[in-house]
Amino acid sequence: MFNDFGGRVLTLGIDIGSSTSKCAVMKNGSELLSEAMIPSGTGTSGPARALEAVFRGSGLTRTDICASAATGYGRNSVPDEAALTFSELTCHSKGAAFLCPGVRTVIDIGGQDSKVLSLSKDGRLVNFVMNDKCAAGTGRFLEVMARILELGLDEMGRLDALAEGRVDIASTCTVFAESEVISRLSQGVNISDLLAGIHRSVAVRAASLARRLGVVEPVFMTGGVSRNGGVLRALGEELGLEVITHEKAQLAGAIGAAICAYEHINNRLKGERQ
After folding, report:
1. Strands 67-71 and 84-85: what pairing?
2. Which residues contact 175 (CB under 8 A, 6 or more apart)?
3. C-alpha distances out from residue 97 to 124, 153, 219, 262, Å
4. What is the pLDDT of residue 156?
5. 176: which of 122, 165, 248, 258 is 20 to 30 A away, CA to CA?
6. Burial of 183 by CB count in 10 Å (0-12 exposed, 13-18 middle, 19+ buried)?
7. CB of 225 closer than 8 Å to CB of 249
8. Alpha helices, DSSP H only, in 150-190?
9. Regions of the chain where pLDDT drops below 50
């Protein structure tokens, strides 16, 4: 029923977010073979480009894949590529547990929302809380700030590390915060100190979500914002503990989707044997 490639069961996970498309190919649900990430999300050419890149990078073709699953905002937009769909919560839980075995709390700050997941000792999703009503505290907020400061997103964390103080941002709304940052710039404040305040603003909101759920260590951060060392540091300070991440943390959703596809195959085969 399913292709047998020398004992390899290959599955594909596709995570289509609001601003980024990610793909991951897994072997037997436990080994990451290939990944791709394109900075364009749902409604764009991003998903197709990410799929092309993940196959090009692995030397595989679509016929090598036993099952595919999609997650994220655009998970229903690729029915021809992924017959299976799973929630972001499920996929990020499994992806985080793969990247950080033993993780108990996952903080995901994506392009349009933030969520905190509570995992059991064996990596199962137990509870969650989300903030998807406001752009403040998300990757979108940081994109707006980067545009004002004329910085690349990757530069923000590096410059934050040079801060000698912190210029706090009082506004809780992205629109008002934008005006506040422009006003601060006109006052000649230090950019690094201003970035420290911007990153703390994001961290405060994420930490508030985490406290509502209850924080159990280890704490692992996923999503595109996990690449920003300034937010990572600020979040650790707000929570009073170490927040860890991984160089592939932004791929957690895609990895989790590929794992879900593998588990779907196993469950289906078990059902056929009974």
Report:
1. parallel
2. none
3. 9, 27, 11, 15
4. 92
5. 165
6. exposed
7. no
8. 153-160, 174-186
9. 1-5
Cα separation, 20 vs 227, whole angstroms: 14
What is the largest distance, in Å, between two alpha-carbon atoms of the chain?
72
Q: To 10 degrees, the CA torsion angle through 223, 155, 245, 203?
A: -70
Residues 215 and 244: their CA atoms lie apart, in Å, by 14
Distance CA(43)–CA(71), nearest Å, equals 14
Q: What are phi and psi of 160, to 5 degrees?
A: -55, -35
Rounded CA separation 201/178 (Å) = 12
What was the pLDDT predicted at 112? 78
Angstrom CA distances, 119 to 95, 131, 183, stand at: 12, 18, 42
Question: Cα–Cα distance between 174 and 141 in angstroms, integer?
Answer: 6
The domain limits of the chain are 10-93+251-273, 102-245
**pLDDT given at position 160:** 94
Which pLDDT score, from 0 to 100, does residue 272 have? 63
Which residues lie below 8 Å from residue 62, measured CB to CB, with a gap of 6+? Answer: 55
**What local confidence, expressed as pLDDT, does residue 141 receive?**
87
Cα–Cα distances in Å, from 215 out to 95, 147, 238, 241?
19, 33, 12, 10
Coil, helix or strand at residue 269: helix
Gap between the Cα atoms of 42 and 45, Å rounded: 8
Spell out the CATH class of 102-245.
Answer: alpha beta
